[in-house]
Specification:
The chain is an alpha+beta fold. About 45% of the residues lie in helices and about 20% in strands. The chain folds into two domains: about 70 residues; about 60 residues, Arc Repressor Mutant, subunit A, CATH 1.10.10. Helix 3 crosses helix 4.
Length: about 150
């Protein structure tokens, strides 16, 4: 079965996407004439990724691919740690001198270990209930007992 999404290139050089059977217009110049279908995709996510790459200047593509390759090798070396253990480690490592911790710092830390924001929110909620954290603002806490 062929994909249901297409990547089309306009005569102005800009790549855009659409659904097979629907009229596709260039998002740069607005033209719907001389659109050439370059490829088809099964999912919108695949299409979006291909459009980004197709519209990226050639000089940046090699740097982009290098960064992706580096990121994939980095993520394959990440430890598979439970969110609660990551949270414990985060509290000990990123709490500032006043025993304060922010959601932004926790999000960065959790992202680094491949956990979702939902995992983080669950851990924060449990820590608040257990009296480990006390809220000092909408996205900040003081570490009380650890």
């Amino acid at each position: 079965m062929a994909g249901k999404y297409i990547l089309a290139r306009c005569s102005c050089g800009f790549a855009t996407g659409g659904i097979i059977g629907k009229r596709v217009s260039c998002r740069r110049c607005g033209s719907n004439k001389n659109m050439v279908t370059e490829s088809t995709y099964e999912t919108g996510r695949e299409l979006a990724s291909s459009i980004k790459i197709a519209n990226m200047p050639q000089q940046l593509r090699s740097e982009f691919y290098e960064r992706i390759k580096k990121n994939k090798s980095y993520s394959s070396h990440k430890e598979n740690i439970e969110p609660s253990k990551t949270f414990t480690k985060a509290i000990t490592e990123i709490t500032d001198i006043n025993s304060e911790i922010s959601m932004g710092d926790l999000e960065i830390y959790f992202d680094k270990y491949g956990h979702t924001k939902q995992d983080l929110l669950h851990c924060v909620g449990v820590a608040e209930i257990e009296g480990i954290l006390t809220r000092t603002g909408p996205e900040s806490w003081i570490v009380l007992d650890f």
